[in-house]
Amino acid sequence: MSFKKISIRDGKFRKVVDGKEVQIDSDVLDVVIVNAAGMSRMFYAGSYDPNRAASPSCWSSNTQAPDPDVPAETRQSTRCIDCEQNIRGSGGGGSRACKFLQRIAVTIVEDNLYDVFQLQLPATSLFGEAERGWMSMQNYVKHLVKHDTSATTVVTRICFEQTSYAPRLRFRPMRVLDEAELKIAMELEKHPDTLKAITFSAPPVWSSAASPFDEVEGFTVSEIA
To answer: Are 172 and 140 in contact (CB under 8 A)?
Structure first.
């Protein structure tokens, strides 16, 4: 089973299969979001170097505490809320050094809909106000819920916000899936490729009453469904 993801390097969507870039796309992508992980956090020690792959020093799959498999020597705190890397200003530009992120599993509409890709959304893509109909992920999901719609049932267009110095994706709905597309999306929701795409190190624990988009602000869980 090959691992496929979409990178967002240099303001372009790039397909990556088993670590090898296979195609460079445009700065706009139409996808179907077939599933999503909850919010997580990740901290990298040292300065960012785009030419060097690096492993995170500490991470949390629930934004509350470091995961059990974080090495003791690199664990930053016992609780995320108490961590100095969670303080505004600990990162560049007044940001937090420990970043929020969210993994979603998508299929590309113009390609084979059965091909599932991981797309990792940085904090800059998760939060923020809507502008000219383009929304952050959190506001996009709220918008769909308000209209009694699931992200799995529509084509989502993703674009880069070109005014931002950091990678920032924005989202908007384009159309409802047709019957054949919807059938495929439903089949893929719990497919092994999909679960692998949204999992960091362990299989996700799903609750029938919980939405993977429930968490809106840091440590506060808000009902949006």
So the answer is: yes
What tokens does 209 get? Answer: 């009453």
pLDDT in tens, 159-188: 998 665 667 899 999 999 999 999 999 999
User: Cα angle vertex 33, ends 27, 36, to 5°?
Assistant: 115
Structure tokens given for 33? 């979001």
Structure token pair of residue 36 = 């999503």
Distance CA 25, CA 29 (A): 8
Beta strand segments in the chain, E: 4-7, 14-17, 20-24, 28-36, 40-43, 58-60, 99-108, 117-122, 154-160, 169-176, 215-217, 220-221
Nearest alpha-carbon partner for 40 in 58, 62, 57, 56:
62
Please classify residue 163 by burial: count the beta carbons closer than 10 Å to its beta carbon, then call 0-12 exposed, 13-18 middle and 19+ buried. exposed
The predicted pLDDT at position 4 comes to 92
Token readout for 37 is 């992980």
Residue with tokens 């901290």: 43
Pick left, alpha or beta for residue 11 (phi over 0 → left; psi -120 to 50 → alpha; otherwise beta). Answer: left
